[in-house]
Amino acid sequence: MSDSYLLPNGRVLRYTFRERLMHWVAGASYVYLMLTGLAFWSPWLYWLAFIFGGPTISRELHPWAGLIFVVAVVWMYRVWSAQMHTTENDKRWWRSVGHYVRNEDDEVPSEGRFNAGQKALFWGFFWCGIILLVTGLILWEPHWIPWNLRALRLIAVLVHPIAALLTIALFMIHVYMGTAVERGAFGSIIRGDVSRRWAKRYHRAWYEQISREVGPEDPASR
Amino acid sequence: MSQANLEIIRISAHPGTVPGAGFKRELEVAKLVDTTTCIGCKACEVACMEWNGLSFSDTTFQNSYQTMPETDWNFWNLIKFNEYEPEGGNLMLLMRKDQCMHCAEPGCLIACPADGAIVQYANGIVDFQQDACIGCGYCITGCPFNIPKFSPKSRKVFKCTLCADRVNEGLEPACIKACPTGCLHFGTKDEMTELAEARALQLREHSGFPNAGVYDPSGVGGTHVLYVLHDATNPEAYGGLPKDPWIPWTVRLWKYPLKWLGNLAMLGGGVGIFVHYLRYGPKTVEEEKEVPREGEQP
């Protein structure tokens, strides 16, 4: 697989079709969950439920969309978790995160395929997804939980929105970084490829690794 | 069950003001249940079913007179029968008519996310509006009395309306009208409180119930259903009447501080992202010469 990362057209394959598909299954279901969830979160956002067919339909479909999201999260876990382990380099990256935020990328340690921030995003969504699944199952049908187990629902009504708010924070940063800040990142999750300069700039260690794997005699790798 | 002539003072999940709040002069009503004179005849159960046209369902036998274990979406008024042996006293059969307590601080209404699904009238009645209900069941979680019940058939939640439609026309609730012993009373909250206190005093001083008292729990702001109990220090004996009912703290935490913190964080995050973009803008990939593709001019 690694020898296919450098594409014949001189660009670099960042995300395979399978990765893009699972990302967008998660993305589409998450956006629906977030917007319908926000409708139930605040009376001032209740109108959001009407654009998805009304509050009752939103209430009925929200848990099912949650199941789709969880399937996508588990899928991502299977495909990506091995690449998401924290390394020593990631710790250095976090120490220089201020430079990263200020766009002083020359001061930031070069990162592999996923930088430490992306790894944090992945694990944040993974663990919040698990919490949202468990609390969401408790809240799904009111008559599933008998009165003597009502403590479960009392915990769930508090924990479900807390976990959801954490994912909204992750989501806002993720979308902002992926579209406005790192130009080219959005294209990579749509079409799959990035330019060599982009790969060198943001994921130099990864770029060097895939270049080495192709071999130095290949002029495309230089 | 919308009652157009009753003035609404509180609406669940409603942004902005409550239309007409404070416009009408209205007295708070209350139902008084004197458990010491209840004979457990269940006339109130039947009257409730009749007046509200509730559908029939199977009753369950569980070695007591009780019709079913708890109220249901189509059974809003249930007498709870409990055997109780006070220390040094004789065995008592406690009978308490269980229904919505119509709290002044209704946990159901506070927990509800659906605009207009639960309203509180100026007369104190808390009423569910099924046409606006989305069937999430958060009201069940917010209620300390286990009263709102989910109907799997209609996927809406139902409970006692205190016969808001009858009260609206100047009538007493159906259960009150049916009671043969006069253990049920209906009137203004002040009148009922006075009557209840007088009865409790009588029980304490003349009937050998030194702990007799009135149940009007302050944790939910007081209720619009009052009980006179033989032993007000042990309401749990009356089929699980909570001693100190309270809107659950997780519901309070979720609906007040967490909501404001979350909203501020989301707004602040949006503003922060915008300001970051103004200050730092996009990351730029430096204009480094790319390796010319084969056959291309550099």
Give a verbal description of the structure.
The complex is a heterodimer of chains A (222) and B (298). Chain A has helices at residues 17-41, 47-51, 55-80, 88-95, 97-101, 116-140, 150-181, 185-190, 196-202, 204-214, and strands spanning 12-13, 193-194. Chain A is elongated. Chain A starts with 11 loop residues before the first strand and ends in an 8-residue tail after the last helix. Chain A has a two-stranded antiparallel ribbon with strand order 1-2. Chain A has 222 residues and is mainly α. The mean pLDDT of chain A is 92. The longest helix of chain B has 32 residues, at 249-280. Chain B is elongated and about 90 Å long. Helices cover 27% and strands 17% of the residues of chain B. The termini of chain B are far apart. Chain B has 298 residues and is of the alpha+beta class. In chain B, the strands form four sheets. A four-stranded mixed sheet of chain B has the order 9-2-11-10. In chain B, strands 1-5-6 form a three-stranded antiparallel sheet, with no helix packed on it. Chain B has a two-stranded antiparallel sheet with strand order 3-4. The mean pLDDT of chain B is 92. Chain B has helices at residues 43-52, 107-111, 138-142, 164-168, 174-178, 189-206, 249-280; strands at 8-11, 29-34, 78-84, 92-98, 118-121, 126-128, 149-151, 156-158, 184-188, 213-215, 225-229. The chains are: A mainly alpha (222), B alpha+beta (298). Chains A and B meet through helix 1, helix 3, helix 7 and helix 9 of A and helix 3 and helix 7 of B.
